[in-house]
Amino acid sequence: MSKQESTGRRYPRQVVCGGVQLEVAPLRTTDREALAALVATLPAHDLLFLRRDISHPKVLDAWMLAIETGELASLVARAEDGTLVGCTAIFTDPLSWSRHVGELRVLTSPEWRGRGLGRVLIQECFAQALELELTRLVAQMTTDQRAAIAVFEDLGFKAEALLAGHVIDREGRPHDLVLLAHDVRAVAARNVLYGMSEALGG
Length: 202
Description:
single chain; alpha+beta; Aminopeptidase; globular
């Protein structure tokens, strides 16, 4: 059983973004081609915050394998016609000294940006992180991805490091990465305090 299947979170879940209902459910290996189609809609610059270029077939194959082995927990947002419009991944390493930390990645289709989908997916990841007994989530992105950084900061992530020239794009140009982090337990405590614990409920 994969890590994402072992949690108590109930899926699929129905969410509303921009007045449209979407289904959020775990990513399955059978979603590989649909995920490839989502990745194909993303500007190349958006992929720089990932450790590998997921537009490459071998990287997608590795993502599918990581689902089977439990190395990652991954969710997708699906439109009524079955199209994937968003995807998340929480990478963990249970054998490392940072096994309490999850590396969060969120992808959203360009046509769905500005509708709150990224925020919804990040909140789902907070719930997953609690169920996976993680205490910290980290995310990284290039410093010019200001809209994405703003969403993460609005949800309580704090910039903790700047990695100068850490990634090089397909044209050979270097870009700086900003590393943001969040205390997962603080999210749960805040939601309970403000009567929003259902956001992390089953």
